[in-house]
Amino acid sequence: MPDVMPDTTARTIPQPPRGIPLRWADDAALALVFLTRVPLPLTIPLAEGAAARAMGWFPLVGALVGLAGGAVFALASALNLPPLVAALLALAATVRLTGGLHEDGAADVADGFGGGRDIARKLEIMRDSRVGSYGVLALVFSVTIRAAALAALTAPMAVAALVAAGALSRCGLAAMAWGLTPARRDGLGAAQGKPAPATVLLAAVLGIAVAAAALTTTVLPALLPSILAAAVAVWLVAALARRQLGGHTGDVFGTAQQVAETAVLLTVAALR
User: Per the domain annotation, does 200 fall within a domain?
Assistant: First the structure.
C-alpha cells in the first residue's frame, strides 16, 4: 500500500553535550515540539537528559491537543452539524496538530506484530514507512471507536473528555520508558532515553490533575474509572511489547497513547 502516514523516524531528538543546565520551561517546550507540529524555538544546545525529562510534560501537551480538538467539536456542534461529523472533525484537528505521530505508531505496531514471525522481522516491518492491512485496520478501528464515543457526548462533555484523554493517554509513557528497555539501539525510543523516577511522578501528577480539572464539573463519575482505564491500557501495551519485542520503541509509545485515549473516551461515554 502507498505511504499514507508520516514516518516517525523523521522526528529525531538532538543529543546534547554534557553539563549544560536546562530550565523546566525548556523541557516543556521540547515536549511540545516533539509531540506536535508547533514551530516553537528551542534553547540550543539542549542539556543532557532533556529528551527524557520532557516526557514529564507530555500530559500538558496532550491536554492542549485535546483542547484543540474539543474547540473544533464545540464549534461544529454550534453550527448544528451531526454529532458524528463533529467528532470526526475534532479527531482530524488533533491528527493535524500532532502530524499523526501516534496514529502512525499504532499502524506500524499493528503491521509488525501482525505480520512478523520473530523480533527482527517485526522491527523491520515497523520501520517500513508503508502501511499494510493490519495497520489500516488499526487506524480504521481507532478512529471509528473514538468518534463514536465522542458522538455520544454533549459538547461540554466532549471537550472535557478530549482534554482528559489527551493528558491521561500520555502520562503513562514516561513510566513505560522507565520500566522497559529499548527494543533497538538506534530507534526513537532509545534516543528518548530513560526518564528518572521524578519525571515519571511528574507525568502522573500532571495527567491526573488535568483529568480531574476537566471531568470534575462535567462527568465526575468517569474520573477515577478513566484514570484506571488509561493505566490499564498502557500496562497492557507495555506487556505486549515486552512479549513481542523484548522492549519498547517509538511506535510502541504511539500505540500506548492511542489505546489509552480510546479507553478513556469509551469510559467517559459509558458513564456520562
Answer: yes
CA 51 – CA 221 distance, rounded (Å):
35
Q: What is the DSSP string of 204-238?
A: HHHHHHHHHHHHTTT-GGGHHHHHHHHHHHHHHHH
Name the domain count of the chain. Answer: 1
Cα–Cα distance, 87 to 25 (Å, whole number): 32
The pLDDT tens digits of the residues spanning 218-231 come to 999 999 999 999 99
Range of the domain at 40: 22-270
Residue 7 lies in a domain: no
Cα 87 from chain centroid (whole Å): 18
> Which of 244, 210, 73 has the alpha carbon at shortest distance from 146?
73
Q: What is the pLDDT of residues 94-151, one digit of tens each?
A: 999 999 999 999 999 999 999 888 999 999 899 888 898 999 999 999 999 999 999 9
d(C-alpha 79, C-alpha 67), whole Å: 18
Residue 100's CB is within 10 A of a number of other CB atoms, namely: 20
The pTM of this model reads: 0.88
